[in-house]
Design brief:
By secondary structure, this protein is mainly beta. The chain has no helices and 26 strands. The chain has a four-stranded antiparallel sheet, with no helix packed on it. A four-stranded antiparallel sheet has the order 8-9-10-11, with no helix packed on it. It is globular, with a radius of gyration of 18 Å.
Length: about 300
């Protein structure tokens, strides 16, 4: 299991790429990013695993770029130049297409790289019906079965569906009532998309085929990240403002409300029932900067 750590604003003094044991959560290896041209470190944020080539792709959001590390020894394979991908946030790797996709917040679009050669191939442009407001992609979810990538628009109530096989935008779906949509996940069984709308304190459940809104679920303050676990059939939502993690079933009905610690931030799943939650908070707080593993009770 891989995690990133970064503290503060540039110049960033602390950042690391971490390899952990998914059962014990023990840190097995750690790498420190290189120094940035303007001082501090080229901090790592979003991570994407390239199993075929044994690499980890990491976004360097503050320097508008990204880097590639070796999975075996965490050595830096390539550091891309600053400014290549504006506010690079999330990164996903498709084994099927052999491409790497990075959300360029405010670009608007997804930057595309060849996974093997690491060559930059350009931008998949995202232009929505509200063309006066540039599409600002944030979180990315790649559905391996359909080859589609889902990403919300931080600047307008929209969700983009990218056809990774064709390398182009497939469609844009409205997100009624959503403000600052930022987190996204997908259930291939029901073909529903789950979108966390940070500005409207809600989780939206959308039919990916028709674009119909299935349900809008009011939550606590600041839903930031959402992940749907296909094994447990549960959706987890981190509420950064409320300090909780809300758990819902596939229909959007409440299942549990958990303590997330200060500023719950990012969620991920192993697809087998375990969900991993990272929170922030001040370094002095005992409950801050922790990693939690969540599982439904047997």
């Amino acid at each position: 299991m891989w995690r990133s750590a970064a503290a503060g604003w540039p110049p960033i003094a602390q950042s690391a790429l971490l390899k952990l044991d998914p059962e014990t959560l023990e840190i097995l290896a750690r790498a420190t990013p290189p120094e940035a041209p303007d001082g501090g470190l080229v901090a790592v944020y979003g991570l994407g695993l390239d199993e075929a080539n044994g690499r980890v792709w990491a976004t360097n959001t503050r320097q508008d770029t990204l880097a590639v590390y070796d999975q075996k020894d965490l050595s830096l394979i390539r550091q891309f130049e600053p400014g290549l991908v504006p506010h690079a946030r999330d990164v996903v790797v498709s084994p099927e297409t052999g491409k790497v996709y990075v959300s360029a917040v405010g670009a608007p679009g997804l930057a595309v790289f060849d996974a093997a050669s690491m060559a930059y191939e350009g931008l998949i442009n995202i232009v929505g019906p509200n063309s006066r407001i540039a599409f600002s992609p944030t979180s990315l979810h790649l559905d391996a079965e359909s080859g589609r990538i889902f990403t919300p628009n931080l600047s307008a109530p929209e969700l983009a569906v990218i056809d990774s096989r064709a390398g182009k935008l497939e469609k844009i779906l409205p997100l009624p009532g959503a403000k600052s949509a930022i987190g996204v996940s997908y259930d291939p069984e029901t073909k529903r998309v789950f979108v966390a709308a940070q500005g409207s304190d809600a989780l939206l459940i959308l039919d990916a085929e028709s674009g119909d809104l299935v349900k809008s679920v009011p939550l606590g303050a600041g839903p930031l990240s959402v992940v749907f676990d296909p094994s447990s059939r549960l959706a987890y939502v981190s509420l950064r403002g409320a300090g909780t993690i809300t758990v819902l079933d596939a229909e959007g009905e409440f299942f549990a409300n958990l303590d997330g610690g200060p500023q719950p931030n990012h969620l991920s799943t192993d697809g087998s029932g375990s969900v991993f939650a990272i929170n922030k908070g001040d370094a002095e707080e005992p409950a801050g900067d922790n990693l939690r593993r969540l599982r439904p009770a047997p």
